[in-house]
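Can anyone check this?
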Amino acid sequence: MLTNGYFCRFSLKSVFRSFKVISTLIMSQSQSHSGLHKITLAGLIVTLGIVYGDIGTSPLYVFKAILSGGNGINELLVLGGISCIFWTLTLQTTIKYVLITLRADNHGEGGIFALFALLKKKTPFIVLITMIGGSALLADGVITPAITVTTAIEGLRMVYPSISVIPVVLVILVLLFTLQRFGTNVIGRFFGPVMLLWFLMLGVLGAIQISTMPHVLVALNPMYAIKLLIEYPSGILLLGAVFLATTGAEALYSDMGHCGIKNIRISWIFVKTMLVITYLGQGAWALNHPDLAQTVNPFFGVMPTWFLLPGIILATAAAVIASQALITGSFTLVSEAMSLNFWPKFKISYPSIIKGQVYISIINWFLWIACSFVVIFFGSSEKMEAAYGLSITITMIMTTLLLSYWLPSSGWKNIFRITVVTLFLTIESVFLLSNLNKFMHGGWFSILLALFFFTIMYGWFYGRRIKNSYITFTDLGQYLNQFRDLKNDTSIPYLSANLVFITKADMPMDIESKIIYSIFQKNPKRANTYFLLHVDNDDSPNTFKYKVNQIIPGTLIKIDFKLGFKIERKINLYFRQVIEDLVASGEFSLESPFDSMRKYHINSNFLFINLDRILTVDYKLPAKEGFIMNLHNIIKNLGNNDIKALGLDSSSTIEEKIPILIPQPVTHRIQGDLRSTPPGHDQ
């Protein structure tokens, strides 16, 4: 006993010392995002913490779900279940995602929205596919933290049987979501080392159990999986539990921009090896303890009694890391959706120096409320399993459909492309059918969540499209003399020395008719210089460029910003930088047009004008468009207005309401009497 105690103390000291060294190494390299894309020890360890939290914590509940779905513990169930897990990880995770999908990168970025940006010019059909996939992925981000943390804390009952799990889980969730606003710059350096220790623990515990029953290794033979599906009663339904083993595969693709394809692929060799060993070990334990396996989670069953408490603590830490990855992944997903006009504009914060890390307050607290509801409503991880897996299956199917559009451009021959797409659509459709069995038992919740997110995306995207369809453009060239004359018209006072209009015109010499109306008709707006700002959302993630067109030098200037979907929209800041460049090149002067201001060397001022296009009661849209626009207007109230969304200074910006003019047929005209009435004969 003394020897064991000494060994434990020695091991803990060694672990903490290793943690310090590794975390320092990681921190030094993570300061440079590009360093994480190189194959280094630090990069591989960071990848473990960022990418593999979800799939890495699946051993907490996957095999337990398989055993719970069976009719008693027997060799066919155990070996067949492990075989299904192994070949699911091989076909779905390794081949589809690690070997194929990671190749579909958008300038180093991955995920369903990055893939959409890569393909959106090729076909309009992928819009709905992307919406469905993105919505289902967000729904998965709600359920994963709830089930992962709950399963880890449930292990405490093996040490403290009377403990109330739900309050502990709720406290952890409160702390987890509260800390999101501070980012992971400090604690994030420990994620990789903790996950490294986690996977090593899985491997060691699994190997010990395998040594007691080497026969379990035959489960790697695919015949056992086939035998389970064919011979076991309702064996096909067990695939719903098997699928939980690969639910984190989508994160491999989504997090490609953070870690790089090489680090993900190499670290997957280690991760998969440890996962397979732990599942084999849980299977060996179940065969050795068939009665106990019906009531005890095999994940905790493989642990020696003395190791239970440290193992539960490590499981809780891994669960928190997995949850953290899903939460920050949801922030990233929503921010990308904003840039691609799938989502209303929410305020985005950047809490740390880690590249790409964002924080969206309203999303954070919505996820907290939803996660807490899942924990309270379902009450146990076993019941949560019914709600888990269905939504992410839909995401994977949508990703496969998008890949079917990408594969032709990657040089794949048609026969291979058709074979690959057919294979994975078949596999995922079977998983979907098996997961649909869970619908009435909790799967409805994930579908309801996904439908909620889909409604937001659909209403926002197509509402914007309808509004933009009624924008009319005119040739800017025919108004050049009017701009010159208005500038020099001293009978009209200056509204501002410089007026800046936000335009949606893509062509260099196009301009919205409403901007012309606002400048010359609604209320003549005199200025010394007129700026037209246009933001072009680029399909590449990190494009950061601008172009200046001096239409009338010193009087009418158009600036085109070309921004990738990963670039934050701070137009006010970018505009100031462009002005600095123009002043430095001598193409623009900040000198005030007012004599009294020039005397004191006071620079000219800038006033931004944003046109908000609204529907008036005078016009009626077709039924479908009217429904979408009503939905769009409701969603619009959830987010920021265009001024905040573009990062404009509200103190120097005015919003001007402009009606959307919709051609309407006149079906009935009012009748009137236009005859003159003699004075003094009023009727």
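Reply from J.R.: I decoded it. The longest strand covers residues 529-538.
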